[in-house]
Amino acid sequence: MSKYLVTGGAGFIGSHLVERLVADGHDVTVLDDFSTGRFDNIAHLEGRQLRVAEGDVRQMKHVEKAIAGAQFVLHHAALPSVARSVEDPIASNAVNVDGTLNVLVAARAAKTVKRVVYASSSSAYGDTPTLPKIESMAPQPLSPYAVSKLAGEHYCRAFFLNYGLETVSLRYFNVFGPRQDPASDYAAAVPKFVTLLLDKKRPFVYGDGKQTRDFTYVENVVEANLAACSSSKAPGEVVNIACGDRVTISGLVNMIGEIVGYVCEPKLKPARPGDVRHSLADITRAQEVIGYRVRVNLQEGLERTVEFYRSRKKKNAKAE
User: Does residue 145 have an active-site annotation?
Assistant: First the structure.
């Protein structure tokens, strides 16, 4: 049994990590300010080896208290969304950069921490035409969110080189799955499309729908985090976490529609500033460095996700 701290552990990805760690018998602490995370995401784990600390990564005292005794830190606390960062870059910087620095400083001071795994983003690559995206490419972030995530990577690398704190940065490509919030103004594409199509409503797409993404089911991300904690080759590295395949956004709508049983053409809206045109990951380094492999492909991941939202829809209907 190991002791883990999951920052942002009540969020979408964080709650899946917590669920897996608790199921594996580890001692887990969650640090979350519940600004975007929800206690409902981890409430079913109460009474097991789980401690929930309500706190903000921007407050060093909160981080220091939560990290005490931890051996591994999975840092997922962040203010997500490219669009939100364009509207409020100061808030994105405060949470994603200052908060990450606090976590690294506290991890170094704690002495017990063996490794910090940092949730980064494929947005760091920007809109360069070269595909697939390889970690050796020069980053060209377009949005404040992308800049903040890249800054976190650089801080992780600096702490490894200067202080010997083992860090690993995982560049996630469009993670999706159960528990994503479809109602937010900044909701990710998959949960928004699924819930609208279940209601037999046409979803809208920003841009012409021909832009492409490498969508990654959340279980793949969970496995990547666990592998990053144990691999001897991982410290100081940045690796892509994705499926290594891409689909157009309109094609994604069609795939979900076929699973749901309601196929339609999406409504188009103007493209948003900061959005990249095409995204596709090379996952060779992840395979070599942490032994990563794709466990759930896009089709299966979408089927699981649709089933989650369909079940939740039925449950809510019965409650009414």
Answer: yes
